[in-house]
Amino acid sequence: MSFKDKLLSGERVLTVEAAPPKGVSFAPVLEQVVSFKERVDAVNVTDLQSSVMRLSALAAAVQMKAAGIETVLQMTCRDRNRLALQADLLAAASFGIENILALTGDHPVLGDHPESKPVFDLDAVQLIAAARGLEQGTDMAGRRLAGAAPRFCVGAVVNPGADPLEPELIKMEKKLEAGAAFFQTQALFDEKTAERFFRAVAPLKARILVGIVVLRSQKMALHMNDHVPGVHIPEAMVRGLAGAPEWKPASVKLACDLIKRFAPMGQGVHLMPIGWYRAVPEILDGIGA
To answer: How does DSSP assign 43-63, residue by residue?
Structure first.
């Protein structure tokens, strides 16, 4: 069953995030993703994550599809105007890639080319609406598409730890109105944050995949607390990673514990290994996936 079919039927789904490399060889990442492809419903392909220049997400997604992996293609508004975004949506559909995650994107000043000019012609809400318009056979200028219209399963992101939360809920409602079929959350670590968020969004009846980041060290946890908006890693959790080197089994166990704690609150999980793909099979074993 496809990711879209499972999602819309209300079944629980599991996605894992993968980042294209800063170079032309996608084989090392692909080899690791292939090792667990039968155990997940789809693999998110990041789009110049953190505004760092890499191989294009679409190129990586096409290679994944050729390897029999269903993908969720992330698409940010930071680097392309509405012409290029619509063109890439059509390009994805032409390769049979239908799952799209619409993001506004981080500002380039945060990445490795801070002098690059941001575009932001559209935001995530408008990109979702553009994809839905293409499905109706017209572009954003109202002109008809040639041939069959594309079909998409469009998702969006939400930050449960936003403070205040109300503006995030307003954006979430706008994304739903524009046609978002599902949401993937920013990383969740704190139970109070999760309970507050899911209590607030319950009336929206949205399909939500809980974001879980694999923490490899105390240093990583402290960095996320200091630099990732909306993320709060409890002090006890940070202390528990003290002195633990990278690749430590404690990190895998923590990821499993977080999944078991938070997954029941949503319709599934979005696992973010942050490049540590070899830990994914261990985590899947730990949660019985």
So the answer is: EEE-SSGGG---S-HHHHHHH
Q: What is the CATH number of the domain that holds 33?
A: 3.20.20.220
Flag residues of the chain having pLDDT under 50: none
- 71 φ/ψ angles, rounded to the nearest 5 degrees: -120, 160
CB neighbours of 281 closer than 8 A, spacing ≥ 6? 35, 36, 39
CB atoms within 10 A of CB 288: 7
Q: Which of 111, 108, 263, 102 has the alpha carbon at shortest distance from 194?
A: 263
Domain-located, residue 198:
yes
Number of domains in the chain: 1
Angstrom distances, CA of residue 200 to CA of 125, 191, 194, 203 = 20, 14, 10, 7
Q: Is residue 7 part of a domain?
A: yes
Contact 271, 15 (CB under 8 A): yes
Residues in a beta bridge with 40: none
User: pLDDT, tens digit, for every residue of 230-257?
Assistant: 788 888 888 878 765 555 788 899 999 9
Query: Of 275, 229, 222, 284, which is closest to residue 252 (Cα–Cα)?
Result: 284
